Protein backbone atom coordinates (compact mmCIF):
# COMPACT_ATOMS: atom_id res chain seq x y z
CA UNK A 1 0.00 0.00 0.00
CA UNK A 2 1.32 3.39 -0.92
CA UNK A 3 1.96 5.75 2.01
CA UNK A 4 -0.76 8.31 2.55
CA UNK A 5 0.14 11.70 1.19
CA UNK A 6 -0.59 14.17 3.96
CA UNK A 7 0.72 17.23 2.13
CA UNK A 8 -1.83 19.78 1.06
CA UNK A 9 -2.22 20.17 -2.65
CA UNK A 10 -1.69 23.62 -4.06
CA UNK A 11 -4.83 25.23 -5.39
CA UNK A 12 -4.97 26.84 -8.85
CA UNK A 13 -3.02 30.06 -9.10
CA UNK A 14 -5.12 33.19 -8.74
CA UNK A 15 -5.87 34.44 -12.28
CA UNK A 16 -5.14 38.02 -11.16
CA UNK A 17 -1.66 38.29 -9.68
CA UNK A 18 -0.22 41.50 -8.23
CA UNK A 19 3.42 41.90 -7.22
CA UNK A 20 5.11 44.73 -5.37
CA UNK A 21 8.62 44.28 -3.94
CA UNK A 22 9.76 46.83 -1.39
CA UNK A 23 13.06 48.48 -2.29
CA UNK A 24 15.45 47.59 0.56
CA UNK A 25 17.50 50.75 -0.04
CA UNK A 26 14.59 53.13 -0.51
CA UNK A 27 15.42 56.82 -0.01
CA UNK A 28 14.19 58.69 3.06
CA UNK A 29 13.09 61.74 1.10
CA UNK A 30 12.43 60.91 -2.55
CA UNK A 31 8.76 60.27 -1.81
CA UNK A 32 8.44 64.05 -1.48
CA UNK A 33 9.14 64.56 -5.19
CA UNK A 34 8.15 61.31 -6.89
CA UNK A 35 4.71 62.66 -7.74
CA UNK A 36 6.42 65.44 -9.70
CA UNK A 37 8.76 63.01 -11.45
CA UNK A 38 5.76 60.88 -12.42
CA UNK A 39 3.91 63.71 -14.22
CA UNK A 40 4.91 62.44 -17.71
CA UNK A 41 3.39 59.07 -16.80
CA UNK A 42 0.26 60.75 -15.44
CA UNK A 43 -0.29 62.61 -18.72
CA UNK A 44 0.04 59.42 -20.77
CA UNK A 45 -2.16 57.49 -18.36
CA UNK A 46 -5.01 59.99 -18.79
CA UNK A 47 -5.22 59.02 -22.45
CA UNK A 48 -4.60 55.35 -21.74
CA UNK A 49 -7.47 55.22 -19.26
CA UNK A 50 -9.79 56.91 -21.76
CA UNK A 51 -8.83 54.20 -24.24
CA UNK A 52 -9.30 51.61 -21.47
CA UNK A 53 -12.92 52.66 -20.99
CA UNK A 54 -13.59 52.59 -24.74
CA UNK A 55 -12.00 49.16 -25.06
CA UNK A 56 -14.06 47.87 -22.12
CA UNK A 57 -17.28 49.01 -23.81
CA UNK A 58 -16.28 47.25 -27.04
CA UNK A 59 -15.36 44.14 -25.05
CA UNK A 60 -18.76 44.24 -23.31
CA UNK A 61 -20.59 43.81 -26.62
CA UNK A 62 -18.08 41.26 -27.89
CA UNK A 63 -18.56 39.10 -24.79
CA UNK A 64 -22.31 39.52 -24.91
CA UNK A 65 -22.41 38.27 -28.52
CA UNK A 66 -19.55 35.75 -28.65
CA UNK A 67 -18.70 34.91 -25.03
CA UNK A 68 -15.10 35.92 -25.66
CA UNK A 69 -12.97 38.94 -24.81
CA UNK A 70 -10.96 39.80 -27.96
CA UNK A 71 -7.38 38.91 -27.12
CA UNK A 72 -5.78 42.09 -28.45
CA UNK A 73 -8.19 44.28 -26.48
CA UNK A 74 -7.63 42.15 -23.37
CA UNK A 75 -3.86 42.46 -23.56
CA UNK A 76 -4.14 46.22 -24.05
CA UNK A 77 -6.32 46.72 -20.98
CA UNK A 78 -4.09 44.48 -18.86
CA UNK A 79 -1.17 46.60 -20.01
CA UNK A 80 -2.92 49.79 -18.95
CA UNK A 81 -3.68 48.33 -15.51
CA UNK A 82 -0.06 47.17 -15.24
CA UNK A 83 1.29 50.61 -16.20
CA UNK A 84 -1.02 52.33 -13.71
CA UNK A 85 -0.03 49.94 -10.93
CA UNK A 86 3.69 50.46 -11.50
CA UNK A 87 3.31 54.25 -11.45
CA UNK A 88 1.13 54.10 -8.34
CA UNK A 89 3.60 51.81 -6.58
CA UNK A 90 6.38 54.28 -7.37
CA UNK A 91 4.71 57.67 -6.94
CA UNK A 92 1.57 57.79 -4.83
CA UNK A 93 -0.21 54.61 -3.72
CA UNK A 94 2.57 52.66 -1.99
CA UNK A 95 5.83 54.54 -2.62
CA UNK A 96 7.65 51.24 -2.40
CA UNK A 97 10.51 51.84 -4.84
CA UNK A 98 12.81 54.58 -6.13
CA UNK A 99 13.23 52.85 -9.48
CA UNK A 100 11.53 54.92 -12.18
CA UNK A 101 8.72 52.99 -13.90
CA UNK A 102 9.13 52.06 -17.57
CA UNK A 103 6.97 53.63 -20.26
CA UNK A 104 5.55 50.29 -21.31
CA UNK A 105 2.40 48.18 -21.33
CA UNK A 106 4.44 45.00 -21.23
CA UNK A 107 5.28 42.89 -18.21
CA UNK A 108 8.73 43.57 -16.78
CA UNK A 109 10.04 40.95 -14.32
CA UNK A 110 12.96 43.22 -13.44
CA UNK A 111 10.73 46.04 -12.17
CA UNK A 112 9.67 45.85 -8.49
CA UNK A 113 5.94 46.12 -9.32
CA UNK A 114 4.04 44.12 -11.90
CA UNK A 115 0.71 42.40 -12.48
CA UNK A 116 -0.58 39.57 -14.61
CA UNK A 117 -4.12 38.53 -15.54
CA UNK A 118 -4.69 35.18 -17.21
CA UNK A 119 -6.63 35.37 -20.45
CA UNK A 120 -10.03 33.62 -20.23
CA UNK A 121 -10.87 31.44 -23.22
CA UNK A 122 -14.58 31.78 -22.48
CA UNK A 123 -16.67 34.22 -20.44
CA UNK A 124 -20.30 34.13 -19.34
CA UNK A 125 -22.62 36.17 -21.55
CA UNK A 126 -25.08 36.60 -18.70
CA UNK A 127 -22.59 37.74 -16.08
CA UNK A 128 -21.33 40.51 -18.34
CA UNK A 129 -24.66 42.27 -17.77
CA UNK A 130 -24.43 42.41 -13.99
CA UNK A 131 -20.97 41.74 -12.62
CA UNK A 132 -19.50 45.20 -13.27
CA UNK A 133 -22.19 47.00 -11.24
CA UNK A 134 -24.60 44.79 -9.27
CA UNK A 135 -22.40 41.88 -8.19
CA UNK A 136 -19.42 44.10 -7.41
CA UNK A 137 -21.37 46.46 -5.12
CA UNK A 138 -20.21 44.81 -1.84
CA UNK A 139 -16.59 45.26 -2.92
CA UNK A 140 -17.25 48.85 -4.01
CA UNK A 141 -18.65 49.67 -0.57
CA UNK A 142 -15.68 48.24 1.31
CA UNK A 143 -13.01 49.65 -0.98
CA UNK A 144 -14.85 52.96 -1.12
CA UNK A 145 -14.56 53.22 2.64
CA UNK A 146 -10.79 52.77 2.32
CA UNK A 147 -10.05 54.87 -0.76
CA UNK A 148 -12.85 57.42 -0.95
CA UNK A 149 -14.35 58.18 2.46
CA UNK A 150 -12.63 61.03 4.28
CA UNK A 151 -11.16 60.41 7.70
CA UNK A 152 -12.50 63.07 10.04
CA UNK A 153 -14.03 64.94 7.12
CA UNK A 154 -16.04 68.10 7.30
CA UNK A 155 -15.14 71.54 8.66
CA UNK A 156 -13.33 70.06 11.64
CA UNK A 157 -11.83 67.11 9.80
CA UNK A 158 -8.51 66.31 8.15
CA UNK A 159 -9.38 67.82 4.81
CA UNK A 160 -10.85 64.64 3.38
CA UNK A 161 -7.86 62.34 3.91
CA UNK A 162 -8.75 58.74 3.19
CA UNK A 163 -7.73 55.81 5.34
CA UNK A 164 -5.27 54.74 2.65
CA UNK A 165 -3.80 58.26 2.58
CA UNK A 166 -3.35 58.33 6.35
CA UNK A 167 -1.65 54.92 6.47
CA UNK A 168 0.68 55.90 3.62
CA UNK A 169 1.51 59.19 5.33
CA UNK A 170 2.39 57.37 8.57
CA UNK A 171 4.60 54.99 6.61
CA UNK A 172 6.58 57.67 4.77
CA UNK A 173 6.99 59.88 7.84
CA UNK A 174 8.45 56.84 9.61
CA UNK A 175 10.69 56.32 6.58
CA UNK A 176 11.82 59.95 6.72
CA UNK A 177 12.90 59.75 10.35
CA UNK A 178 14.07 56.14 10.63
CA UNK A 179 15.10 55.21 7.06
CA UNK A 180 12.86 52.15 7.45
CA UNK A 181 9.51 51.62 5.72
CA UNK A 182 7.32 49.87 8.35
CA UNK A 183 6.74 46.36 7.01
CA UNK A 184 3.30 46.01 8.56
CA UNK A 185 2.04 49.14 6.81
CA UNK A 186 3.68 48.13 3.54
CA UNK A 187 2.07 44.69 3.63
CA UNK A 188 -1.33 46.17 4.45
CA UNK A 189 -1.17 48.73 1.64
CA UNK A 190 -0.12 46.01 -0.81
CA UNK A 191 -3.05 43.90 0.32
CA UNK A 192 -5.54 46.72 -0.11
CA UNK A 193 -4.31 47.57 -3.61
CA UNK A 194 -4.18 43.87 -4.57
CA UNK A 195 -7.83 43.60 -3.54
CA UNK A 196 -8.70 46.74 -5.53
CA UNK A 197 -6.95 45.46 -8.67
CA UNK A 198 -8.72 42.10 -8.47
CA UNK A 199 -12.06 43.88 -8.24
CA UNK A 200 -11.05 46.17 -11.10
CA UNK A 201 -10.26 43.17 -13.30
CA UNK A 202 -13.62 41.59 -12.44
CA UNK A 203 -15.58 44.79 -13.02
CA UNK A 204 -13.71 45.37 -16.29
CA UNK A 205 -15.09 42.03 -17.52
CA UNK A 206 -11.67 40.34 -17.67
CA UNK A 207 -12.54 37.36 -15.46
CA UNK A 208 -15.69 35.62 -14.23
CA UNK A 209 -14.23 34.43 -10.91
CA UNK A 210 -15.69 36.50 -8.10
CA UNK A 211 -12.95 38.37 -6.20
CA UNK A 212 -12.36 37.05 -2.69
CA UNK A 213 -13.19 39.22 0.32
CA UNK A 214 -9.64 38.74 1.50
CA UNK A 215 -6.76 41.05 2.32
CA UNK A 216 -3.81 39.12 0.91
CA UNK A 217 -0.99 41.15 2.38
CA UNK A 218 2.65 41.21 1.38
CA UNK A 219 4.78 41.75 -1.69
CA UNK A 220 3.88 38.49 -3.43
CA UNK A 221 0.71 36.52 -3.94
CA UNK A 222 0.20 34.09 -1.04
CA UNK A 223 0.53 30.36 -1.54
CA UNK A 224 -3.03 29.10 -1.23
CA UNK A 225 -3.48 25.44 -0.33
CA UNK A 226 -6.49 23.22 -0.07
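^ Assign residues to that structure.
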Amino acid sequence: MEPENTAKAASPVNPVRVRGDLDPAISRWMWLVKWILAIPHAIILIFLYIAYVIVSVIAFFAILITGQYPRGLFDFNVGVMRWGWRVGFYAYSVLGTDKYPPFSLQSDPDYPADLEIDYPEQLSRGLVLVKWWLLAIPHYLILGAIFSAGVGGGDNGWGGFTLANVLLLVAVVALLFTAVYPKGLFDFLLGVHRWSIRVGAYASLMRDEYPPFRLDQGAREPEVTE
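The chain is about 45% helix and 5% strand.
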